[in-house]
Design goal:
This is AAA+ ATPase domain-containing protein. Pfam families: AAA, AAA_lid_At3g28540. This protein has 251 residues and is an alpha/beta fold. The chain contains nine helices and seven strands. α6 runs parallel beside α8 and α7 runs parallel beside α9.
Length: 251
């Protein structure tokens, strides 16, 4: 995912737009207003990682003179990696909302082909290698500041080359800290008598923030929602115990 900043961050009233490639239209890029509600404050992620990310974004935005002085293109690369449901795409939207950057979304699946009347399938193919060549080349230095964000289910070695991604952030399973953020967002509570049980369960099983949010959204009554989450986590714990027992028998 690309970000390009056509305006100053202080213009808080400006609408953020999401641009996607339109292979069937007259214009190559089409856009809509990005109404994603995610903010950095509401992201269910490690609090220290969140603080470091915000500091890094602020540092980059205020470093135009530094990049010019050292002879580097004014761009910053991020890699968010982790299993599905851990909030990678939501974090991208939260960054766009925080910085008031327009977002340019590209699908980098290596073998995807598109057909249109105006272009051949070969011309329309978007590949990871082609994008990386663009990032590494002279075109990357054109225009104003850019933030380039890659989201992946794993830490792709192709993206680790210096100059491509400067920050590598693992988006992992829901921690107790992340759960507290979700509980505050969904239930408007900061503490509850069931928190101790949930903290222990989250330490034993792997549940994504999407898993946890899916249970909390079932009721605006804190007792009901948290009990539903506990049952869900206990079910995961039972499945894990059964799987480990079967593995022990096989060995």
């Amino acid at each position: 995912m690309f970000y390009k900043k056509p305006r100053r961050k202080k213009e808080e009233t400006k609408a953020v737009r999401l641009h996607t490639v339109d292979y069937n239209g007259t214009d190559y890029w089409s856009s809509v207003i990005l109404n994603h509600p995610a903010t950095l404050e509401t992201m269910a992620m490690d609090s220290e990682a969140k603080r470091e990310l915000i500091e890094d974004l602020d540092m980059f935005i205020n470093s135009k003179d530094y990049y010019r002085r050292v002879g580097r293109a004014w761009k910053r690369g991020y890699l968010f990696y982790g299993p599905p449901g851990t909030g990678k795409s939501s974090l991208v939207a939260a960054m766009a909302n925080y910085l008031k950057f327009d977002a340019y979304d590209l699908d980098l699946r290596e073998n995807r082909e598109f057909e249109s009347e105006a272009r051949t399938a070969e011309e329309d193919k978007i590949t990871l290698s082609g994008l990386l060549n663009f990032i590494d080349g002279l075109w990357s230095s054109c225009g104003d500041e850019r933030i380039i964000v890659f989201t992946s289910n794993h830490k792709d070695p192709l993206l680790l080359r210096p100059g491509r991604t400067d920050v590598h952030l693992e988006m992992s399973y829901c921690s107790f800290s992340g759960f507290r953020t979700l509980a505050s967002n969904y239930l408007k509570i900061e503490d509850h008598k069931l928190y101790g049980v949930i903290e222990e369960l989250l330490g034993n099983v792997q549940a994504t923030p999407a898993d946890v949010a899916g249970e909390l959204v079932k009721s605006d009554n804190a007792d009901i929602a948290l009990q539903s989450l506990i049952r869900h986590l206990q079910s995961k714990e039972t499945e894990l115990d059964q799987s480990q027992t079967e593995c022990s028998r096989d060995n």
